Amino acid sequence: MNIYHLSHIDLDGYGCQYLSNQCFKEQHNYSLESYNANYGPEVKARLEEIITAIKREKFLGNDKEHIILITDLNLTPKEAKWLEAQAIEVGAKIQLLDHHGSGEKTAEQYIWYMLDTTRCATLITYDWLQKHHNFDKENNYAQIVKAINAIDIWLSEDELFEFGKVGLGMISGAREINRTLFPAEDRALKLSLIEAMKNYVDKENAHIALDNDLHQLKKAFFKQAEDNTKDNLAAIYVTQLLSSDKQRLTIEYRGKKGLLGYSLGNTSILGNTFLVENPDYHFYMDINYRGNFSLRSNNKLDVSKMAEEVGNGGGHPNASGGKIKEFRDSFVYSDVKAFVQNYIDEKTA
Fold it and tell me: Could you list the pLDDT tens digit for every one of the 349 residues in the chain?
C-alpha cells in the first residue's frame, strides 16, 4: 500500500502525521509520503505534487494500492472536483478527515470527505486508524491525542489543556529548518517534538516540565558529535543540508556560482559557514517571501556591486543586501529559484 498524506502545519496537522507515521510506517511497514500545506493555494500545489508522485510510481510499475489521505485541511468544491477527477485518472483512492465547518458544503458532495466539527483532526484520524487499520489497541497514544484535541478545539476546562497549549507553541516556534526548502527535515523535527511531548503527558505538572525542557529537546534533535549552543547546532545542521543539496540550490551571477536559500535567515552564520566548506562557490544569497535578500561572500566576489545591480541595494564587499520589488513568492522552491535566476539574467544582460 502506498499512502500520500497531506496535512496542515500546526500542532493538529502534524499530530495527524505523527499518528499516520506510527500506524502505517512503524506498525504496518507501508510506503508513506508526507506533505504539508497551509490553507489556500498551497493546498492545490501539494495535491498536484501528490498526483505527480503517483503518476511517477505508476510509470515505474508500482501497482500497489495508492491512497491519498488529507487531514486537518478543508477543500473547496472546485478543489475536491479536481482532485476526484485526478484520482480516478491515476487509480487512487481518497480519504479526507477534517473538522473545519467551512468544508461543510464540500463534505455533502463527496463520500470520501469525512467532516466532524466536534473533534480535532488528530482525534478524528486516531479513531479512523483504530477502526480501519487496527492501530493502538493498547491506547498508548490516547493521552497525547486528548491533549491535542483539548487545545485545538479550545476545551479550556480539560485537564490537558495547558499541556496542549505548550505543545501548540512548541510546533509554531519550531522554525529552525525552512519548510519550503527542506520539508522532510522540517517535518522530522516537529514529529520528534510530538514524540517527546507524548513522553511528558503523564508526568506531574506535565505542562511545566515540557516547557522547561523544550530547549534541550530541540538541541537533542540537532546535536551531532559535539555540544554547542542550540542556534549553532541548528546552523551546522542546516549548513550540512545546504552542502548536501547544493546542486539543486545553485544559481549564477556573471559567471560566478552561488547558492540560493529561501527564508533561512541567520545569513551571516549560514552563508559564511557554507562558503568556507564549499570554496568553489563565490556567493551565498538568501531571499524571503517579500523579495528582501541578503548576500555573503568570502573575498571571491564584491557582493555590494551585485546587490546594487540586482536589487538597488548595497553594503560591504562580503556582506550586502537589497530587494527584488517584482519578486513573486511561491510554495515551490524550484519556482523561486527559476524566478531569481531569470531576474538576475535580465538585470545582467
Answer: 999 999 999 999 999 999 999 999 999 999 999 999 999 899 999 999 999 999 999 899 888 899 999 999 999 999 999 999 999 999 999 999 999 999 999 999 999 999 999 999 999 999 999 999 999 999 999 999 999 999 999 999 999 999 999 999 999 999 999 999 999 999 999 999 999 999 999 999 999 999 999 999 999 999 998 999 998 999 999 999 999 999 999 999 999 999 999 999 889 889 999 999 999 999 999 999 999 999 999 999 999 999 999 999 999 999 999 999 999 888 889 999 999 999 999 999 8
User: What are the extents of the domains in the chain?
Assistant: 2-222, 245-348
Q: Which amino acid is at 135?
A: F
CB atoms within 10 A of CB 114: 18
Count the neighbouring beta carbons within 10 Å of the beta carbon of residue 121. 28
Give the Cα-Cα-Cα angle 148, 151, 155 (nearest 5 degrees): 120
Q: How far apart are CA 223 and CA 274, in angstroms?
A: 18
d(CA 78, CA 51): 16
Cell (9 digits) for 340: 531569481
- H or E stretch including 257? strand 256-262
pTM equals: 0.93
**Cell numbers describing residue 11:** 500542532
Please answer whether residues 281 and 275 qualify as being in contact, where contact means their C-beta atoms are separated by less than 8 angstroms.
Answer: yes
The sign of the dihedral angle between the CA atoms of 303, 305, 309, 311 is positive
Give 93's DSSP letter.
E
| Domain at 2-222: CATH code | 3.90.1640
DSSP 8-state assignment for residue 26: I
| Separation of alpha carbons 188 and 199, rounded Å | 17
Q: How far apart are CA 348 and CA 254, in angstroms?
A: 7
What backbone phi and psi angles, to 5 degrees, belong to 252?
A: -130, 150
Q: Which distant-in-sequence residues (6+ apart) come within 8 Å of 4 by Cβ?
A: 33, 35, 50, 53, 54, 66, 67, 68, 69, 92
CATH class for the region spanning 245-348: alpha beta
